[in-house]
Every structure is written in C-alpha cells, then in structure tokens.
Specification:
Elements (H helix, E strand, L loop, with lengths): L2 H15 L16 H12 L13 H9 L13 H13 L5 H15 L8 H13 L2 H17 L7 H41 L4 H24 L1
Helix pairs in contact: 1-7, 7-8
Length: 230
C-alpha cells in the first residue's frame, strides 16, 4: 500500500466525519405516519449508504422490528419522536449485533424511558449518546490513520510492487477487522453479563413487567397529586 492509498484513507475519514447523522434537534416533535418515517430516515441517513440502491429503512423492516419486540407499536398508526430515536439506535446496532442482543439492549431502554420518568427521557438519552459518539470521531480517525501507517510498513521487503501493495492493503483491512472483532466480543460479553444480572433483578414475564410499569406510573401520579395539594 503506497502513500497515495494512505492519503485516500485520510480523505475518506474526513468525508465520514461529515456524514449526515440524525441530530437531536432534527427529530420532529409531531407524530409521523409510516411513509413519513421512512422518508425522514432516508433523507437523514442517505450518506451512510454503501450503494445507491441500498435501503435505510422500509415498511417491512419497521413492522418486523415491532413484531420482534425491538420497537414499541405505533399509536393509531403514528410514530412519535421516541420511535425515531429507537429506530436510529436499531439502524446502527443491526450492523454489528444480533436481534437477541439488540432486544437485550433496547427492551430495558423502552420499558423505562419510552414515556419518560423522573430519571430521564429518550430525548435526553439520545442527546447525550449523540454527543458522546460525536466526541469519538477524532480519536477513531487518528486510530485508523495509525493503522494505515503500520500497514504501509508491512511487507516492505516484497519486491513486486503489485504484490506488496495488495499485501499492505490486506494488512490494513485485517487490522481494522481485528479491531471490530475484539470490540464486538467485548460488547457481547457486556450484554451477556447485563442480561444475566437483569434476570435476577427484574420480573421475567411481560405481564409482570407491565404490572411493574403501571405501579411506577401510579406512584408518580400519587406524588404529583400530593405536590398539588401542598
């Protein structure tokens, strides 16, 4: 891999840093119908497509997410901004994690924060996660460039230019893939540990979780009533 290829990687990183992510302030406060949701997601994530005909989100995908308990069902066929936040998380997670792992992550999130509580709301959570991830871009770019330079130095004794450049290119892809592989294993271990601990701490059945949620709502309403009386 020659210097020109490293420069290409640097240019690519600059382009990726400018991708059109869904910013917190861009999520509409009004509820949307299915077609409006797919249009919104496609407009804001079109830069992430690898190929022009790739689909960001389809009606079938959304329906399947609901069936698989990844996304709460719409209310009167309309989706709130909370639905859009969850769909955005699904979009990024699905490229790396299995459906069961995404369920393990999103079920507690939607059960506790979809309608908001004293701890916070999905609106607050999405803003903080967005800012955390945005702050990582420069560090990720630096790491990738370091790997590109390492790859430039690999197989330097291979005399044939085409063979050397291919092996250096292969080295870079291998380094990046190993990095993703290791982090994926860490993520899966974290999810497994969380799921194991959660089974001991929260109700197991859907009806039990629903009852607990209703109880929390009732307690919240009672606290509000007491405040008003004062």
């Amino acid at each position: 891999m020659n210097t020109e290829y490293t420069q290409f990687v640097a240019t690519l990183l600059k382009r990726l840093a400018k991708l059109n992510y869904i910013k917190p302030g861009e999520v509409p406060n009004i509820d949307l119908y299915m077609d409006q949701v797919t249009t919104f997601m496609d407009e804001h994530l079109s830069d992430c497509k690898r190929r022009e005909d790739d689909k960001i989100l389809t009606k079938t995908m959304i329906n399947n997410y609901t069936k698989n308990n990844l996304l709460p069902p719409p209310v009167k066929k309309k989706y709130s901004k909370e639905h859009l936040y969850v769909l955005t998380f699904i979009y990024y997670f699905k490229n790396l994690l299995s459906i069961s792992d995404i369920q393990a992550l999103l079920n507690p999130l939607t059960e506790q924060f979809f309608e908001g509580n004293d701890t916070g709301s999905l609106d607050d959570i999405y803003k903080q996660i967005y800012n955390l991830c945005k702050g990582e871009i420069s560090g990720i770019s630096k790491d990738v460039l370091e790997k590109a330079h390492l790859s430039e130095e690999a197989f330097s004794t291979v005399e044939d230019t085409d063979s050397r450049e291919f092996l250096q290119f292969f080295s870079l892809v291998s380094l990046l893939s190993f990095d993703v592989y290791m982090k994926k294993n860490i993520i899966e271990s974290l999810i497994d540990d969380f799921a194991s601990r959660s089974q001991q701490e929260v109700p197991h059945t859907k009806s039990e979780r629903k009852a607990e949620k209703a109880e929390r709502k009732a307690e919240k309403a009672e606290q509000k009533s007491r405040k008003n009386e004062k």
